[in-house]
């Protein structure tokens, strides 16, 4: 197996926006486009493409298995298309391929997801240069207005932890939780700062140091 290569100068740079439901990914993606429109392109969430387009969504193990495999392949193709079309921009990926491990129905063996799509953790992690994880909001701020969201807050918290676990291998991951102030706008500002510093060419170590200031 080849070793993962991050920040490969021969490829477009990709950042994954991930995290549990109602973490603020959509809001952050919209803010990033407003702030840095000439430097970024958003890769839409494959699950939203499928479910919004009529995919027969199920909660049965068999149904979820087919859903997650479909999401993986749609996501990969959309990412490759936009990478080819925008090699000079930072690709903001609304979820990444390892997220599927958190949704895989066999919780005793989430590795089964990777086997089903013929890949492994290292290969999928190396497809992305940066990972920005937004934790699920507290119960008071949990958003239930998204028509495609069908998880309770308790389910969302469990998914959030599984997604954290799935991406722990990545060497350039940031986790942004609820701000000390409790305000979402402060969480959003922290995440935007990370994206801005990535665009400015800062290293992972430099960004981490600035977040502690």
| CATH class division | Alpha Beta
- The Cα radius of gyration reads 17 Å
Which descriptor suits the 3D outline? globular
**SSE order, as H and E?**
EHEHHEHHHEHEHH
- Largest sheet, described in full? 5 strands, parallel
Report the total helices: 9
The CATH homology group name: P-loop containing nucleotide triphosphate hydrolases
The average pLDDT is 91
Assign the CATH architecture.
Answer: 3-Layer(aba) Sandwich
Strand content: 5-15%
Low-confidence stretches: 1-5
The total tally of domains equals 1
Terminal residue distance: 39 Å
Adjacency order of strands in the biggest sheet: 2-3-1-4-5
Q: How would you characterize this protein structure?
A:
- The structure is a single chain.
- The protein is built from 9 helices and 5 strands.
- With 213 residues, the protein is an alpha/beta fold.
- The chain has a single domain, classed as P-loop containing nucleotide triphosphate hydrolases (Rossmann fold), CATH 3.40.50.
- It starts with 13 loop residues before the first strand and ends with a helix.
- It has helices spanning 25-36, 46-52, 61-85, 100-103, 111-116, 121-125, 153-166, 184-199, 204-211, and strands spanning 14-18, 40-43, 90-94, 130-134, 173-176.
- The model is unreliable at 1-5 (pLDDT under 50).
- The longest helix has 25 residues, at 61-85.
